[in-house]
Amino acid sequence: MAGIKDVARAAGVSVSTVSYVLSGKRAISEKTSSRVMDAVRDLKYTPDASAQKMRGRRNQILAVSEPIRGDINEAKYNAYFLHTAWQAKNAGYDVLLLTGEDAVDDIRRVTRSNMVDGVVLLDIVEDDDRVVQADTYGKPCVAIGYPAHHGDCACVDVDFDAAATMAVDYLYERGHRTVALLRDNERDYARRSGYVVTLRRRMLEHAEELGMLVVESGRNEVGIFDAAAFVRNLMDMDSRPTAIINQADATILNMVVQELADCGMNIPFDISVLSVGTFFENDLVARPVTEIPLMPRLLCSKAVGLLVSAVEDGFDIADASEFVLPRIREHGSVRVVNSTDTAGLDISPPLPCLVGPDGRDRVAGSGMTFSPCR
């Protein structure tokens, strides 16, 4: 079995440098740290793990991996971290927040040096390397989210397929046949943020199954979303949507609500609003809306409970997965319409569509995309 001297020799550094990289007690250059971690991986070195296990010691610390990005949704980020920390505290554990971009190396550093007893992964994407590499940490690991491949990592999440179906059915049963989808941050789609992609995909699929027309907003880029153009395009359509399904954050939704008000449109009498996969409990929303929300408190409770059972009772949680059924919070922002008079507007046949240079269907003259088009 490789020892710390072997790692130092392979990395071309001193034993003390290896120790500092693994413990984080001193700042070591990124280049040197990378060489050390490469050697640790190649040699499968696990510092003092056997000794700690023989002594039966725990550090009562859980690592929480939640990398900080420039476009993070602060309300969601804070909610998941704080609820994780709160649940850990109630179980007798402190938390160590890992925010670096080299997330896998950060997790290996704190697990292989036995700084922590287990790992919680937040902000999961569809192809999440942190989850795929869970079997290399040597500690139990739970993800709040369900990626495409989860290996030896337990997963806890809302059933977002069910949430998307619930959202579309909720509007359909209330007579809505043409709806607008207010997109989430484009970077979340681009980086394949798990629940964001799942919600949009399934909502569009189920709407097509029911024969509903879904008009998508333009790209929601950070800091430059044109809410006035979004509302203006809705107003200019011959078959005006009777409802908005919102995936965007509170800032964007507030802008849209204000633009609707400026155009003399009342929620829900002129247009309904249903928000899906959002967390407005602690956000300042201009007008409370009916919501199928994220559930950080419940998910964090389940995740920490699962992790503690592995740490303290030795349960094997590698194949454990749990889906929580979605819930709807009524705030009176969706009204019932009938099939002949939707918000005072006669339903007309679907608008003609064009195929843009990117291959996506576009509503003629609106600058917006929609499905179905065929």
TrEMBL record:
Keywords from the named record: DNA-binding, Transcription, Transcription regulation
Top-level taxon of the source organism: Bacteria
Pfam family of the protein (one): Peripla_BP_3
UniProt keyword DNA-binding, yes or no: yes
PROSITE patterns per record: HTH_LACI_1, HTH_LACI_2
Keyword set includes Transport: no
Entries under Gene3D superfamilies matching the protein: 3.40.50.2300, lambda repressor-like DNA-binding domains
Alphabetized GO MF terms: DNA-binding transcription factor activity; transcription cis-regulatory region binding
InterPro entries listed in its UniProt record: HTH_LacI (IPR000843), LacI/GalR-like_sensor (IPR046335), Lambda_DNA-bd_dom_sf (IPR010982), Peripla_BP_I (IPR028082)
Residue intervals of the HTH lacI-type domain: 2-56
Descriptive protein name: LacI family transcription regulator
